[in-house]
Amino acid sequence: MIRILYCLILSGWCLGIQAQPNKMYRSLKEIKKAPEKVYRAHLDVNLYWTPPEILYACQNLNYLILHTRELHQTGMGVKHKYGISSLSGKIAQLRQLMFLDLSYNQIFELPYEIGQLKKLRYLRLYNNQLKSLPNTLGKLVNLQELSLRGNQLNTLSQALEGCQQLTTLDLGRNQFKQVPEVLAKFTKLEQLDLGGNPIKMLPNALFKSLLTLRILHLEGIKLKRIPESIGKLTKLESLFLANNKLRKLPLEIEQMQNLEYLLLRNNAFTQFPKVIAQLKKLKELDLGNTTWDDIPDELKGSMEKKDFKISFNKLKKLPDVITQLSELERLNLKNNKLTKLPKNIGKLKKLKYLTLKGNPIPKEELTRIKKALPTCEVMF
User: Is the pLDDT of residue 36 over 60?
Assistant: First the structure.
């Protein structure tokens, strides 16, 4: 028991947030009784336009979430009926703060005093109304995660280069027309999200300094081409390129031998990107809703694939090479023009789910497929 307790305490410190006391305060009534004992607080702020004053008396507070529950849907996405619209400079009084989440509010600007939170490691500001950020944000030298998704930002100041410890940066669904130049300064970045911005083009130099990236989101930004420098991202594990206008992939992608997840749905490919076959560790490939009608034999190079989605295409024939993907667990062939599958489809011993909806497959062929794959759930 003592050893278990020691491990729990140690894991809490490893996360950078004090494990004791670990009570989460969820009401102002509790906080007012003894604010000096409050280390963690998670409050719904539907009825407040600014954070309750009592919070600034919580000098030991290191973990704070202020959300609103009252949401409504509009054509532009989720908007917030209530919630915080302004943040006082008094936030600087919370010197011990390491985790601050002000997502799902209506905050228009941040006070410059936020730069005084020297211990802050996680700052989440999803879905607010921010149009700019104070330069003092660059003084948060211990910041590891900055999440700004769903605001109205169109630029990032070079002053942010002081945040040299950043490993996660989410800029998705803002108004960036160009990739902020300051990104090149974040050389420890592991996760980057630029999806949903009207960027259209990526500079070739973008990836030359982001060599530690593991996860990259570039979906929905109307890209027509990917710069060759993406091949520099040899540590990348997940690449999201869905909902763009790509017609081909650069051959340099072959260098990304740690890539496991590649999503290319809803692009303008007219042929299967053959370079994909060189990605030996690929586990999930989504090429749904493109316009090609054939799969090349080179596909057999990707033997580790576990999840393969080629729905909403024009496939009339599934090549025999698909049966060589011995690790395949999920195969989505929804809404193609298939009338049969390869005779040796039974070789896919690890296949658990097969989706054939929207294909003109005769009953006799469907019966054969189910018999060949007795442990697989076939959806038709």
Answer: yes
The pLDDT of residue 16 is above 60: no
Lowest mean pLDDT segment, chosen from 44-53, 84-93, 214-223, 354-363: 44-53
**Is 372 within 8 Å of 345 (Cβ atoms)?**
yes
* DSSP 3-state of 30: helix
At 141, phi and psi to the nearest 5? -70, -15
Return the pLDDT at 209. 92
SS3 24: strand
**Cα 212 from chain centroid (whole Å):** 16
311, exposed or middle or buried, with CB in 10 Å at 0-12, 13-18, 19+? buried
| CA angle, residues 327, 257, 351, in degrees to nearest 5 | 10
Specify whether the CB–CB gap between 117 and 97 falls below 8 A. Answer: yes
pLDDT in tens, 137-186: 999 999 999 999 999 999 999 999 999 999 999 999 999 999 999 999 99
Mean pLDDT of the 283-306 span: 72
Cβ neighbours around 70 below 10 Å, total: 13
Give residues with Cβ within 8 angstroms of 374, minimum separation 6: none
Strands, E assignment, the chain: 24-25, 40-44, 63-67, 71-74, 77-80, 99-101, 122-124, 145-147, 168-170, 191-193, 215-217, 238-240, 261-263, 284-286, 307-309, 330-332, 353-355, 377-379
Query: What's the CA gap between 196 and 323, in Å, rounded?
Result: 36
CA atoms of 181 and 202, how far apart (whole Å) = 11
Is 288 a residue whose pLDDT tops 90?
A: no
